[in-house]
Amino acid sequence: MNEKIRILVVDDDESIRKYIAKLLTQAGYDVVTMSNGKEALKELRTGPEVSLAILDILMPEMDGLETLNEMRKLSSDLPILMLSALGQTNIIVKAMKAGATDYLVKPFEEEELELAITKSLEKRKLLTEISSLKKQLRVDELRGEFIYNSPKMQRVKDLVDQIAETDVSVLIEGESGTGKELVARALHYRSGLKDKPFVKVNCAALPHELLESELFGYERGAFTGAYKAKAGKFELANNGTIFLDEIGEMDMSIQSKLLQVLQEGTFSRLGGKQDVKVNVRVIAATNRDLRKAVEEGTFREDIYYRLNVVNVTIPPLCERKEDITYLFEYFLDAYNEKYGKSLVVDKEMLYPLLLSYPWPGNVRELKNQVKRLVILGDINDMAHYLKDGKARSLHEKQLRELKPEVLEIEADEDEIIPLKLAAKEASIKAERDMILKALRGTNWNKKRAAHLLQISYKALLYKIKECGIEK
Question: CB 44: neighbour CB atoms within 10 A?
């Protein structure tokens, strides 16, 4: 049944209108009929939404072409199917140029009408999906597009343009939320690899036991639950780019394996005996001071220099105030478009607050606050957020300026546990969290969850009981 699909039929011939209406009603469509163009236009303006219009070319007073042109002014994406008689080729050509989706020559068979309607509706659905994806891309992906108004970000963009076409490894440094992934995508999509894979791995999101298998894959039987082999992210990124986000959180044991990839372009899967060869451009990002990590022995010096062939440092938003209102206006326009809003703000009231707020979460925080603003439509809500946040930030700054001994907290020896036990507890928690995520994502369909987790159904039931998981 097509209960939500409403079709408008416009033809001055009553017998044709009734014939088409009968066929479409039997097919489950909601049908409304009109005898002339003026009535049809009024219906489009004031009536419920129409999914498709079927329009006769030859009608008295306002003919089909004129009606078509007026319909296009009301809706640029409404599918319009034209009906014509034999010998009206020139008029059909004009109609298609004016924006008709398709046409049918009378008399037509029932199957021809059904096929034409199906094609027209599918085309509209495709155009809607493309439009939606473009909006999503504009706000959430920004494939290689820089939105800035400051000299500091101009220098970042110039550097990206200079190195994008090379195959050198790049280390991107900057605080959380400054746009490190955006720079990584810009490097990829402005290079000769733009049509090849871009694979992102967040090194801070997984425990090191899981991160190793995520990066390098595993063979069947490599560990409990490995019932079939799985390719890792490096294999998936072959001939393209891999983006290692928050690489400063990577465990030293994995760094050794990463070094082999950087030096030789080879690695072995977990449980594997054969070397896997890949050709991958590596882009890494961190919000930590890796030089300090090298000095402290938590990050390998040889990997640091392998990755840091070219360094791109993104300044925090508070150090490029020219970008704050520029980005605000960009995100405001983008989210207004995405959510079908037309929110206008009082710049004289809001902009001084935007510029005085420290933006500890950088561009990500600004983007999320604009999204909230558009959805709620409450400028006072954002004003309170900025005022409260400024006061909170000032308090935190005062705390940071206190002498270290004032802030030092003594550790209770009873709270300290062996490292192996701490690692085991972290691993159990990560396993429980992943099982819960799989169950919730499949609406507690245990067989589907077991498939996603790549363990047997019985193993999942055992782990659910072991972890004390309840719906």
Answer: 19
How many CB atoms neighbour CB 361 within 10 A? Answer: 18
Residue 269 Cα distances to 218, 221, 223, 239, 242, angstroms = 5, 12, 12, 18, 17
Neighbours of 158 (CB within 10 A): 10
In degrees, rounded to 5, the angle at the alpha carbon of residue 430 between the alpha carbons of residues 251 and 420 is: 55
Q: Which segments within 305-370 are labelled E, that is strand?
A: 310-313
Same domain, 92 and 222: no
Percentage of residues of the chain with pLDDT beyond 70: 87
With b for 16 or more beta-carbon neighbours within 10 A and e for fewer, the 429-457 pattern comes to eebbebbeebbeeeeeeeeebbeebebee
- Are 233 and 307 part of one and the same domain? yes
Residues 98, 90: contact at Cβ < 8 Å? no
Residue 409 has pLDDT above 70, yes or no: no
pLDDT of residue 469: 82
- Please report, for the chain, how many H helices and E strands are present, in that order: 20, 12
Cβ contact 345:332 at 8 Å? yes
CATH at residue 463:
1.10.10
287 or 450, greater pLDDT: 287
CATH of the domain at 330: 1.10.8.60
In one-letter notation, the amino acid at residue 204 is: A
Q: What is the pLDDT of residue 138?
A: 46
Angle, in degrees to the nearest 10, between helices 446-453 and 457-467: 100
How far apart CA 243 and CA 280 sit, in angstroms, is 10
Sheet holding 2-10, edge to edge: 29-34, 2-10, 52-56, 80-85, 102-106
Element at 5 (helix H, strand E): strand 2-10
Query: 407 in a domain, yes or no?
Result: no
Overall average pLDDT of the 250-270 stretch = 94
* pLDDT > 50? residue 278: yes
Query: For residue 247, what is the DSSP state?
Result: G
Q: What integer pLDDT is reported at residue 420 of this predicted model?
A: 59
Instruction: Single out the residue of 145, 186, 178, 185 nearest to residue 162, CA to CA.
Output: 186
Give the whole-angstrom CA distance, residue 171 versus residue 282.
9
Q: 298, 315, 332: which is the final residue of a domain? A: 315
* Tens-digit pLDDT profile for residues 216-237: 999 988 888 778 888 999 999 9
pLDDT (tens digit per residue) in 335-353: 898 888 889 999 889 999 9
Confidence band, pLDDT 50/70/90 cuts, at residue 419: low
Residue 471: pLDDT above 80?
Answer: no
**In terms of domains, do 162 and 278 share one?**
yes
